[in-house]
User: Which sequence fits this backbone?
């Protein structure tokens, strides 16, 4: 049979497999799945018959069987056969047949046979998949991982082709040895175990082999109860259960823990505030923006190192992985506070590298290899030179168009690195799918070019994790495609494939609609709303939060300057008026949201697919529509009523009763949002989302910024 091959380099044969069939040349005809499907696990010649099932324990045979029964309406049985043809093997196979017969299985094999086996000629993560017209499907892997990936491809094909499967031949292996996903479970959401296991199943289906849960304070560390109280933290039992669940699906669960920067909640406690750069700031009112900007451990304080080491020592033994992501990113306060007093002769590069070296020594004592976000190390060549050579550098860039120079820099030093794109879902109701596709594609291309060993797709929860991780599944697929085989694919074509594979949409329309939501449907985004709200220092004080004001000014490139003497209301007014052109798009944006929502719901036809269901979709769409209206109302309160279309027929600006109705609509919407949040997560920081919504309801009723 003809084979379709795509050559990445002289040694790599790859195919585009999301979805697989549309990119393949295959033989004439189709293989019809009969009433019985037999899955044969061909036991290697060297394996003991009684213990041979251990060779296949991470294969998705159970999932394949259930999908064959669901999609094709067939009966599935599984049998073991010896791969060799000697007399002993024949006896073992006869014994297997006898066991089947005693269990009520038919002696004759009618229907399709799916034959699974190993092939020493293939690399360990390489596989071949052959579908023959003679009712036989053969999957061969160079190792257990290759065989598993072949089965996942077969599952993808079956999910799209129903009873008739095209005859084909695939020989395939990934571009990156490590294909990881990092999910933020600390800055707002703490998922339920049910959701996490579902998510792991999605990762396995799309051939990821590593998973990281990003944690700052949302794990029940013994000495951090003051930090995690009220957040429904993950427990040791949760981690050990998930670690086992991942392992049985061929996925390595890697600990990912903030141990240097991003210590906001930990350093706001009375017990540990003294370990930070600015302990005097520990009692400032909570702020989503300040949580992202501040609270770094004092690298010059030995007690801070001991504290971070204790967290590592408590957390690492829960994982079978020998890797450990120690974070180390965005240490914005380093060298600006107590460390400048405690070690005035030390530069920022020495402080940073010294602290990281100490953490690496802690990991080495426990047999763990360090991973580190690369942003701070890349700021200074001296910092990079001072770091240990065995660190895996996690090189993140999240813009659609990237600068390859940082990837080239790490490659030139001979360091191991993973490239790290993002699903671009943070601080939004809906992800920026278009930006995520370009970001993952360009990062993967650069990673292959400069010899990166892996790719980590990141999914962050800045500003309270208002984004629902079920909506990240398309971004997960973008990452899977580009980590496996980064070839040029038209964005519309890629989205059509995801529509078919993930959402069962034969028209291929769902993803085009979902992509439009962020690009065409947003006039008042969540991150801008948070900035407007947090310009006030605390609630009801009327005071300007100068830290947030400085952040907003930097975000605006210096084009916006707040008068510190005029207070919060004036700063809010200036920020809103600066964004008046965007806020005035409310009506057009709302029409786009309604059009997209109606089209997607029509395709879903009341069902849930790929984690998406009609109620979740409408809750998130309605949330964005209400915030679009909120932005328009706030612009009126800022004095911009002549610049926007918000007047009633008498020519007067929107009155208090209309603002009160919007306030009530926001509060009623939050109750629907709460139900969706709790369907996949614990309460955690849901109250912080409520605070944003209810604070704006109060502003509307008050009628003043």
Assistant:
């Amino acid at each position: 049979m003809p084979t379709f091959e795509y050559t990445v380099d002289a040694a790599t044969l790859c195919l585009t497999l999301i979805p697989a069939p549309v990119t393949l040349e295959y033989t004439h005809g189709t293989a019809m799945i009969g009433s019985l499907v037999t899955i044969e696990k061909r036991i290697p010649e060297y394996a003991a018959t009684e213990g041979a099932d251990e060779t296949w324990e991470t294969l998705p045979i159970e999932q394949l069987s259930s999908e064959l029964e669901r999609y094709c309406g067939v009966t599935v049985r599984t049998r073991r056969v010896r791969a060799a043809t000697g007399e002993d093997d024949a006896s073992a196979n006869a014994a297997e047949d006898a066991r089947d017969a005693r269990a009520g299985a038919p002696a004759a094999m009618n229907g399709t046979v799916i034959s699974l086996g190993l092939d020493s000629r293939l690399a360990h993560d390489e596989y071949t998949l052959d579908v023959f017209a003679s009712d036989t499907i053969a999957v061969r892997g160079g190792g257990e991982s290759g065989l598993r990936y072949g089965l996942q491809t077969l599952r993808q094909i079956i999910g799209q082709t129903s009873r008739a499967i095209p005859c084909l031949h695939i020989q395939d292996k990934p571009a990156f040895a490590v294909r990881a996903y990092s999910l933020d479970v600390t800055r707002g959401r703490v998922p339920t175990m049910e959701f996490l296991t579902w998510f792991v199943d999605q990762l396995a289906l799309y051939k990821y082999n590593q998973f990281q849960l990003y944690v700052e304070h949302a794990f029940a560390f013994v000495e951090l109860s003051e930090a995690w109280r009220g957040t429904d933290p993950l427990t040791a039992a949760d981690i050990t259960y998930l670690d086992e669940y991942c392992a049985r699906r061929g996925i390595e669960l890697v600990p990912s823990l903030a141990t240097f920067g991003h210590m906001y909640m930990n350093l706001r406690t009375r017990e540990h505030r003294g370990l930070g750069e600015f302990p005097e700031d520990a009692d400032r009112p909570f702020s989503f923006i300040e949580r992202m900007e501040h609270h770094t451990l004092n690298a010059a304080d030995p007690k801070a190192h001991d504290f971070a080491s204790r967290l590592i020592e408590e957390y690492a033994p829960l994982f079978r992985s020998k890797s450990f992501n120690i974070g180390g990113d965005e240490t914005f306060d380093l060298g600006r506070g107590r460390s400048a007093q405690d070690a005035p002769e030390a530069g920022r590069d020495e402080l940073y590298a010294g602290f990281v070296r100490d953490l690496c020594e802690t990991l080495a004592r426990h047999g763990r290899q360090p991973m580190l976000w690369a942003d701070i190390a890349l700021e200074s060549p001296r910092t990079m030179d001072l770091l240990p050579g065995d660190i895996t550098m996690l090189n993140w860039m999240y813009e659609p168009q990237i600068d390859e120079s940082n990837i080239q820099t790490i490659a030139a030093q001979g360091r191991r690195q993973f490239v790290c794109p993002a699903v671009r879902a943070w601080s939004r109701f809906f992800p920026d799918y278009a930006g995520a596709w370009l970001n993952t594609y360009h990062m993967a291309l650069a990673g292959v070019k400069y010899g990166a060993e892996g790719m980590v797709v990141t999914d962050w929860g800045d500003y309270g994790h208002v984004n629902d991780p079920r909506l990240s599944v398309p971004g997960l697929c973008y990452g899977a495609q580009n980590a496996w085989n980064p070839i040029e694919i038209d964005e519309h074509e890629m989205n059509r494939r995801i529509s078919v594979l993930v959402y069962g949409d034969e028209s291929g329309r769902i993803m085009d609609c979902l992509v439009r939501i962020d690009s065409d449907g947003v006039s008042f985004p969540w991150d801008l709303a948070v900035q407007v709200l947090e310009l006030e220092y605390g609630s009801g004080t009327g005071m300007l939060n100068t830290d947030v004001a400085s952040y907003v000014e930097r975000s605006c490139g210096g084009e916006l300057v707040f008068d510190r003497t005029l207070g919060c209301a004036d700063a809010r007014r200036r920020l809103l008026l600066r964004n008046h052109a965007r806020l005035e798009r409310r009506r057009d944006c709302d029409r786009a949201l309604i059009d997209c929502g109606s089209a997607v719901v029509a395709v879903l036809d009341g069902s849930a697919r790929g984690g998406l269901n009609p109620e979740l979709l409408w809750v998130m769409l309605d949330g964005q529509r209400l915030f679009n209206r909120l932005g328009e109302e706030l612009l009126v309160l800022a004095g911009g009523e002549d610049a926007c279309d918000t007047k009633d027929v008498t020519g007067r600006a929107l009155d208090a009763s209309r603002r009160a109705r919007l306030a009530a609509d926001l509060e009623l919407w939050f109750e629907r949002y709460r139900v969706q949040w709790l369907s996949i997560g614990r309460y955690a920081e849901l109250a912080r989302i409520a605070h944003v919504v209810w604070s704006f309801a109060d502003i509307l009723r008050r009628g003043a910024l």
In short: The chain has 24 helices and 18 strands. The CA atoms of residues 553 and 625 lie 27 Å apart. Residues 1-28, 85-90, 101-109, 648-652 have pLDDT under 50 and may be disordered. Residues 614-640 form the longest helix (27 residues).
